[in-house]
């Protein structure tokens, strides 16, 4: 089971990195998907249904603090959106509220990240 989660996570990371090359305009500072994955890694067991919330809130709060600019927030949004596959979307969307963090968009595959300010 752990090996399958690890392979799935690595596949998501690869897909996210490829996606981000196309999404983030060159020359604008933005948080990369590797950074997003690092912050969100503690949430993986919870959103895949294999573990508790655990240290997830620390990652969410840290990521929210790091995303200071509009390009940062749009980049984080795009990364989260692309990571949504294979997770419980209800749990993922509820994470900010559970952790007491207010973000300007819903974590969902249907979110238009270009409209995030």
From TrEMBL:
Top-rank lineage group of the source organism: Eukaryota
Signal peptide: 1-29
Annotated Bifunctional inhibitor/plant lipid transfer protein/seed storage helical domain residues: 33-113
Keywords: Lipid-binding, Signal, Transport
Keyword Signal: yes
GO molecular function: lipid binding
Annotated InterPro entries: Bifun_inhib/LTP/seed_sf, Bifunc_inhib/LTP/seed_store, Plant_nsLTP
CDD domains the UniProt entry points to: nsLTP1
PROSITE patterns assigned to the protein according to its UniProt record, in alphabetical order: PLANT_LTP
Gene Ontology biological process terms, A to Z: lipid transport
Pfam families (UniProt xref): Tryp_alpha_amyl
Family membership: Belongs to the plant LTP family.
Function: Plant non-specific lipid-transfer proteins transfer phospholipids as well as galactolipids across membranes. May play a role in wax or cutin deposition in the cell walls of expanding epidermal cells and certain secretory tissues.
Protein name stated in the entry: Non-specific lipid-transfer protein
Lineage of the organism: Eukaryota, Viridiplantae, Streptophyta, Embryophyta, Tracheophyta
């Amino acid at each position: 089971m752990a090996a399958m989660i690890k392979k799935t996570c690595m596949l998501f990371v690869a897909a996210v990195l490829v996606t981000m090359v196309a999404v983030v305009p060159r020359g604008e500072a933005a948080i990369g998907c590797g950074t997003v994955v690092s912050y969100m890694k503690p949430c993986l067991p919870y959103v895949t249904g294999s573990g508790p919330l655990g240290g997830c809130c620390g990652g969410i709060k840290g990521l929210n603090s790091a995303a200071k600019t509009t390009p940062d927030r749009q980049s984080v949004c795009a990364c989260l959106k692309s990571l949504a596959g294979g997770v419980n979307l209800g749990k993922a969307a509820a994470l900010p509220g559970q952790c007491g963090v207010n973000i300007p968009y819903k974590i969902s595959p249907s979110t238009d990240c270009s409209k995030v300010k």
